[in-house]
Specification:
By secondary structure, the protein is an alpha/beta fold. The chain contains 24 helices and 20 strands. The strands form 4 sheets. Strands 3-4-2-5-6-1-7 form a 7-stranded parallel beta sheet, with helices on both faces. β12, α15 and β13 form a beta-alpha-beta unit. The longest helix has 18 residues. Bound molecules: adenosine-5'-diphosphate and magnesium ion.
């Protein structure tokens, strides 16, 4: 459905047109008309589906001359960035509707500026719950004429602890109003809010592509460096999927891995962009008609491949893009069937990359440990025993074949062994031995921390965000994994999870911060301030001022005697 099929004013149609929007997204199609009618709405749809326009267009459309002197629409967003983003988009919708005055209010920005803007006659306010409350308390935001409240990313707002603020806002605005709520998930706390504050809401739920991903069980295995191929062989043998895809990031890896698997007796083919079209077609046909059980592919070669009945997807390499992960695992679990996705990771860095993917896809990727060779062999033996013991329609012809073989000198026992070996599969013999790898993961919250020391400090005009940025960049960990950063004159200490220390030190040597090569070490408290060359342009320091001017005395002591506090504590 096209935007101009809606009964929108020509000002809005023109603005939307200029944004390059033509077709409405599903959530827009379903929510804009009912929102224009003034109904309460509960909307569920994934990120990137255009929810801002879904509520923003009706909000802008609803503003008339009557709204000139008061706030009529309030939009609550979980973060400052989202508030700014929504504000930006609403401003674009209102480009030709001069009557609309949208103002955003959020923490960490000047209160005075916001007050000034609110005073100049805002009729749409976009803000974070905390700052909105703040303005309400100061009476710089008056909501007594409000007729519409929109909660964007409601679940995220609750996660962030805004429940009380949201409830006070909702209970303080006029009862006669429209209440709109958008959320990616609907936990009970959200339902409680909708029940308490909405009137006969229209429920809109958009099933998206990501939904099918939920049908896919997702696991990961931590594998020692250099042993991914062995791990993959074990997994293919253990689960023996009748049809599976293995994803690699490079063409060379596809070739090497395919060759390895062929050697081990798997029915496998590889596909990538350097192959001739005729070759690719052949490979694809083999995979489609199930004569090839395993297809090893690059992301690009696999694009557009639509094969049903793929039982399992293996991520041999972690995808280079979060979206790829969804595309890859979406190869299984098609057409409402369930499927399984297995991801192999080696080392901390990949562990953190996987965590990012998990966050991005909102998936639950569970850790699993590799089966051992002997477990797999036992499993296969049990299967064969049960399979053979269940056979009950033995034909006369089978006996006659046995007789023939016996005449050739192959007795019954030898025949049976040969047939069982065939069933057991060639890959069994070549299965690698795997000692159980030590799980890498340690607890997250409440973990024991230590400090690392970086030999750069205030003398190089370093700010905490430089340090954090460099660390996040080098380790692939998230900013939240790092604790307190203390910058001293010639060095900096950073609190890190103890379990990650070795990894952090490994992956940060070498590392550059602001163009300076630095060294990261475990902080033992023995770091001495090095009197280096004075940085350029810096005035000669006044020794007194340096010692007592900018920094608190206690800090300086702690700098030299880091566990002073601890020692004091231990005295008691
Ligand atoms: P959500 O809030 O659901 O995560 P957004 O509202 O941020 O999604 O929209 C995602 C992107 O899609 C934005 O860049 C937006 O401008 C764009 N967009 C929204 N609706 C349409 C549409 N109908 N046609 C084209 N692009 C759109
Ligand atoms: Mg959004």
């Amino acid at each position: 459905m096209h935007f101009n099929e809606l009964n929108l004013s020509k000002e809005l149609i023109q603005a939307v047109d200029e944004l390059g929007f033509t077709e409405m997204t599903e959530i827009q199609q379903q929510s804009i008309p009912t929102l224009l009618e003034g109904n309460d709405v509960i909307g569920r749809s994934n990120t990137g589906t255009g929810k801002t326009a879904a509520f923003g267009i009706p909000a802008v459309e609803s503003i008339t001359e009557n709204d000139r002197n008061h706030v009529s629409v309030l939009i609550l967003c979980p973060t400052r960035e989202l508030a700014m983003q929504a504000h930006e988009e609403i401003r674009k919708f209102a480009k030709y509707k001069k009557i609309v005055k949208a103002v955003s209010v959020y923490g960490g920005a000047s209160m005075e500026k916001q007050i000034h803007e609110l005073k100049r006659g805002a009729n749409i306010v976009i803000g974070t719950p905390g700052r909105v409350m703040d303005h309400m308390r100061r009476k710089t935001l008056k909501l007594n004429n409000l007729r519409c409240v929109i909660l964007d990313e409601a679940d995220e707002m609750l996660n962030m602890g805004f429940r009380e603020d949201i409830e006070s806002i909702l209970s303080e605005v006029p009862e006669e109003r429209q209440t709109v709520l958008f959320s990616a998930t609907m936990p009970p706390a959200i339902l409680a809010i909708t029940e308490k504050y909405q009137k006969n809401p229209v429920h809109i739920k958009i099933k998206s592509a990501q939904k099918t991903v939920e049908l896919i069980e997702q696991y990961y295995f931590e594998v020692a460096m250099g042993r991914k191929t062995d791990a993959l062989k074990l997994l293919l043998s253990a689960y023996s999927p009748s049809s599976s895809m293995v994803f690699c990031n490079t063409k060379k890896m596809v070739d090497d891995l395919t060759e390895e698997l062929v050697k081990s007796g798997f029915r496998v083919s590889g596909i990538h962009g350097d192959m001739k079209q005729s070759q690719r077609t052949q490979v694809m046909n083999g995979f489609k008609n199930k004569s090839t059980e395993i297809l090893v592919a690059t992301d690009v070669a696999a694009r557009g491949i639509d094969v049903t009945g793929v039982d399992a997807v293996f991520n041999y390499d972690l995808p280079q893009d979060n979206e790829y992960y969804i595309h890859r695992i979406g190869r299984t679990g098609r057409a409402g069937r369930t499927g399984t996705a297995y991801t192999l990771i080696s080392g901390r860095k990949q562990f953190y990359e996987l965590r990012e993917i998990e966050k991005y896809t909102k998936a639950n990727i569970q850790e699993k440990s590799l089966p051992t060779k002997s477990e797999i062999v036992e499993m296969k033996k049990d299967n064969i025993v049960s399979e053979i013991s269940k056979i009950d329609n033995v034909s006369y012809e089978a006996y006659s074949i046995l007789e023939k073989l016996a005449e050739m000198g192959i007795d019954y026992r030898e025949t049976a062994v040969r047939m069982i070996a065939e069933k057991l599969g060639a890959e069994i013999d070549s299965l690698p031995e795997f000692e159980q790898s030590r799980p890498l993961r340690k607890g997250r919250k409440g973990t024991k921390t230590v400090k690392v020391d970086i030999n750069i400090g205030r003398n190089k005009r370093i700010a905490p965000n430089f340090i954090l940025g460099a660390l996040v960049d080098a380790t692939g960990m998230s900013g939240r994994d790092f604790g307190k950063i203390d910058i001293f004159d010639t060095h900096t200490t950073v609190e890190v999870p103890e379990a990650e220390t070795e990894y952090i030190i490994d992956s940060t040597n070498p590392m550059k911060i602001n163009g300076n090569q630095v060294e990261v070490k475990l902080y033992t408290g023995a770091v001495k301030e090095v009197r280096g060359k004075r940085p350029e342009n810096k005035p000669k320091f006044d020794r007194k001022k340096r010692a007592y001017g900018n920094r608190k005395k206690a800090d300086i002591y702690n700098d030299y005697i880091p566990d002073r506090k601890k020692r004091i504590k231990n005295k008691h």
